[in-house]
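New to this. Comment on this protein:
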Amino acid sequence: MLKMMDVLEQSLVQNFSDSLFSPAEQCDAQFSQELLNVADIDLQNIVSAFFMRADAADIAHALDIQAETAEAIQAGADLKDEAFMTATAKIVAYCLALETDAFNQVDVPDSLQDYPM
């Protein structure tokens, strides 16, 4: 599978890992700004790799990405367009979280253990 750390700028990957424990608003703004600096072809490759997963539709749904938005992205929509930037950021963040093993660094309260993640 495509390694995000090889494709994305080092600062984006490093800031993502560091920002997991920062206030969400600050993280979102910085992450979105950094994504604008990523080459279009690199974003397209990441999103394509995401949608090649057998469970991509389920994950997109869990990320609150509307089916219409996912279809438009798969059809070649501009990933940096304002209408698709949120979905693009969610997909890239999910892939980065997988690759950096961030999900295992998050403390999940016992009351949420049965909630699908």
Remarks:
- Residues 82-99 form the longest helix (18 residues).
